[in-house]
Amino acid sequence: MKALDLVMTPPQAEFFMMEDKYPALVAGFGSGKSETMANCAVRDAMMSSDSLVALYEPTYDLIRLIMAPRMEEKLVGLGVRYKYNKTENIIYTSSSGIGDFVLRTLENPARIVGYESYRAHVDELDILPEAKAQLAWQKIIARNRQKPRGIKKVLNRVSAYTTPEGFKFVYKTWKKNPKPGYRLLQAATSSNPFLPDDYIQGLMDSYPPQLIAAYLRGEFVNLTQGTVYLCFDRKESVKPCPYNPALPLHIGMDFNVNPMSASVHQEQPNGEIWCVGEFAEMTSNTHDLADKIAKRYGRPSFDPDKPDLSHITIYPDPAGTQQKTSAQGKTDISILREKGFTVIHMNAHPLIRDRINYVNGWLLNANRVRRYFVDPSCENVIQCFEQLVYDPNTGQPDKKSGADHMPDSVGYYLWTKHVWIPAQRHQSEHMNR
C-alpha cells in the first residue's frame, strides 16, 4: 500500500488537521467537501486494519453515484485491494494496515443499527428536515463506539460536511450554540484553486441571487421561509410568448390525482425559454391528457386519426414509471409513448431543493438575468409560482394548497432537459474513454 499523499486547499488542510470530536465543514459548492470527506475517511481507516469507518449520504443514489466511486478511486490510487459489496454496501479491504468502510443512507435513521464504527463521516446532513437530521445524528454518534486493536488512544470522531441550508440543525448545533467538542469551519467556493475557470461564473448564471451567499460563500441564510419561487415576478416574468409552430415543444408533466398538470415550453434562439401553454386537468386519466395535448399541438399526417407528434417531447414525473392510471394496468409513461410522444424521464427524483433552486435560477440568476418567461394565458403557472409557500412545520413546499403541481411540471422539464440529460451524456462519454 502506498503512502497517503494529499494535495489540499488551506481550508481542507485545516479541517483535516482538526482534533475535535465533532467537526463540521460548512462550505459552498465546489469547495471540496466530498474530497475532504474521502481523504479524512481513508486517514481514519489507515489507523488500524481492524477499524470500520462509516460513511453516510442522504440517499442511496448519492452513495452509488458519488461516494462509492470516489472511495474506490482513492483506494485504487493507494494500491489497496478491496471488494465493494453493493448488497451490503460495505467496502472490504484486503490490504494490511487499512480497515473497512460501511456506506449508509440517512433516509431512515431508525435503520442505522447493527454495527459499530470507529469513525463516521456524514455528507450533506443539512439537506434533511431538521427533526430527521437531529435523529440521524443521534443514531450515528451512538453507533460510533468501536475500539479497534492497535490504537492506544481511541477518539471516536464524527465529522459533518454540508452546504448551508438555512437556519436548521447544522446552524443550531455548530454555529448558534455549540456544545464542547463541536467546532465549525466555513469555506467559500473561491478557496478551491483547482476548479475550472468558468465554474463560479456558471453558478452565478444558474442560481438565484438569494442563494449565492449560501452556495458560493458557505454562509447561513434563510432558504425555507416565504415564497418558494421567490424569483418569479409577475411584472418581469410574464410577457407575450406566442406559440411558434416551427419550433419543437417541450412539455413538463406532473402525474397527480386531480389535477394532472402539464406546462408547455419552447426554447427560443436567444436562449430564453417560453411557457406557451398549460394543461391543468381535473382528472387522473393520462389517456385524456395525452389526447388533449395531441389535439391542440399535433401536426397533420397521412392518417387523420393519428396526428404527427414527432416535434413534442414530454419530460414527466419519474413516478410515472410505476404509476398506473389505465384499466389495462399500463404505466403513465407507457401510455404517453403509445400515443406517439417522445418521452424522456429521469430514473429518480432529484432533491426537491435542487430542483426548486434550478427553476429559480432560470427565473432570475445572480447576474440579474431572466431566462424563463410565461405567457399571460398560462394563469395556473402564474398563480402557482406566486402562491406556493413553504410549510413552516416541514421546511418543504406546502402541498396542501395544491399550488405545487404546476411548478413541479416546470421543474421536471428544466431539470431533465438541462441537468439530467447532460449528466448522462457526460457519464457515458467518461465510461467510453
Alpha-carbon Rg, integer:
24 Å
Main β sheet profile: 8 strands, mixed
Estimate the strand proportion: 15-25%
The coarse overall form would be elongated
CATH fold group of the largest domain: Rossmann fold
CATH class of the largest domain: Alpha Beta
At CATH's second level, what is the architecture of the largest domain? 3-Layer(aba) Sandwich
Low-confidence stretches: none
How many separate domains make up the residues? 2
Could you report the average pLDDT, rounded to the nearest whole number? 90
Explain this structure:
The protein is α/β, with parallel strands linked by helices. It has 2 domains: 10-215, Rossmann fold; 234-431, 2-Layer Sandwich (Nucleotidyltransferase, domain 5). Helix content is 34%, strand content 17%. It has 13 helices and 14 strands. The protein has helices spanning 10-16, 33-45, 60-78, 130-143, 169-176, 199-206, 209-215, 234-237, 286-297, 332-339, 352-363, 379-387, 405-431; strands at residues 22-27, 52-57, 82-85, 90-93, 100-105, 119-123, 158-162, 182-187, 249-254, 260-267, 273-281, 312-316, 342-343, 372-374. The strands form 2 sheets. Strands 3-4-5-2-6-7-1-8 form an 8-stranded mixed sheet, sandwiched between helices. The chain has a 6-stranded mixed sheet with strand order 13-12-9-10-11-14. β6, α4 and β7 form a beta-alpha-beta unit.
